[in-house]
Amino acid sequence: MWCLPFSWLYRIRPSVVHDPFKALTQSTFTNDFRACPPNPNQLRWQPFDLPKNPADFVEGLATVCGAGDPKARSGVAVHVYACNQSMKNKCFYNADGDFLIVPQTGDLHILTEFGQLHVQPREILVVQVHMSVPLAGNGMLVTFQQGMRFSVQVSAPSRGYILEVFNTHFQLPDLGPIGANGLANPRDFLSPVAWFEDVDSVDYLVVSKFQGSLFSSRQDHSPFDVVAWHGNYYPYKYDLAKFMVVNAVSFDHADPSIFTVLTCPSNTPGVAVADFVIFPPQWSVQEHTFRPPWYHRNCMSEFMGLLYGRYQAKEEGFAPGGASLHSMMTPHGPDQEAFEKASCVELRPTKLEGTMAFMFESSFSMAVTQWGQNGCSKLDGSYYRCWQGLRKNFDPNWKPQQTEEPLTSPEIIQS
Ligand SMILES: O=C(O)Cc1cc(O)ccc1O
Ligand SMILES: [Fe+2]
């Protein structure tokens, strides 16, 4: 039975004991997408820089693109983070919506109001003590829903991607004919157990994101003073290696919605505010098929990132820690090299291994921020060239080769 998301938190002091909020300026971070000039071009970013100066998770937040308005509780934003410092006596919460965080490099140890979890890369969870997101080479997501306070601790330079949704929360996609099991299974989502610290007489900074702007307020105690909680509204993490991949096993290239890990639905059935989709290791077995993605134009904005390895449609040029954006109805698809390779390759069963790309796919038409356009200095001005060498292959006299036994072969039992 579905019930409204809620949690009861039993804490040492109520959260209301704090000084007034003050505006916090951070020029790289924004939710004001009306100010961003439209740009329909295919865009690709080289890997975003790791911090050159000391920066914690909040200081290292930068917005790449987005649409909508948190005041209207409608829209999405795509941010990246790059940090090399732990948040010390400092936490963050988002009053506007949910953050789905996808680390690309570096462990994140996260203190939350709901507790901490610690998982070493590839370790099966046994003891729940700290929250940690494994290193690149694996792939993990962690979701903080509206209002949840958290503090990110790092031990090495760390970088990742964030999908923010203003409308509602992420949920598992409907499995439809797949049935009861498959894709991301509910049992693999892990949540913290209650943990608290009773720390007084500190100068603690609570950073909030409210109506698209950042604020800070001071208090004299740790906000992680929740001694117990219950409910169904809590942060969670998910190891992308647990995703059960479903794909075409006969012919043709399936829509990437079959790789949806989580979706934030809109009020229109079948249309997502945003989907989080992965391109995980998998077998390719389709016959009579150009196996990489088709060339296409569609009614979604597609922001892609690469956690590790190579993406099938662009083996070069799309690097781990970088990104691409293909906007509504803007044509895109495999680069020339991928096209030529996949057009000639023998279609044996092949295992795509050692790779994890992902897509934040939104029905909102996203605009690129000033930081995304210029500030980050990572935009690849020559991206469009990767398609310019594609030539026509149309031959009006072409006839299909009979490479297989005809269907009337006596070997085949016909009904
Ligand atoms: O454009 C992309 O690379 C993402 C994508 C992958 C795919 O397999 C099918 C459609 C699609 O948009
Ligand atoms: Fe696409």
Automatic annotation (TrEMBL):
Cofactor(s) listed: Fe cation
Pfam families in the record: HgmA_C (PF04209), HgmA_N (PF20510)
SUPFAM superfamilies: RmlC-like cupins
Sorted UniProt keywords: Dioxygenase, Iron, Metal-binding, Oxidoreductase, Phenylalanine catabolism, Tyrosine catabolism
Known EC number: 1.13.11.5
Residues where Fe cation binds: H296, E302, H332
Pathway: Amino-acid degradation; L-phenylalanine degradation; acetoacetate and fumarate from L-phenylalanine: step 4/6
Domain Homogentisate 1,2-dioxygenase C-terminal: 242-394
Superkingdom of the organism of origin: Eukaryota
Single annotated GO MF: metal ion binding
Binding site for homogentisate: Y311, H332
Membership in a protein family: Belongs to the homogentisate dioxygenase family.
Protein's name in the database: Homogentisate 1,2-dioxygenase
Natural source organism: Geodia barretti (Barrett's horny sponge)
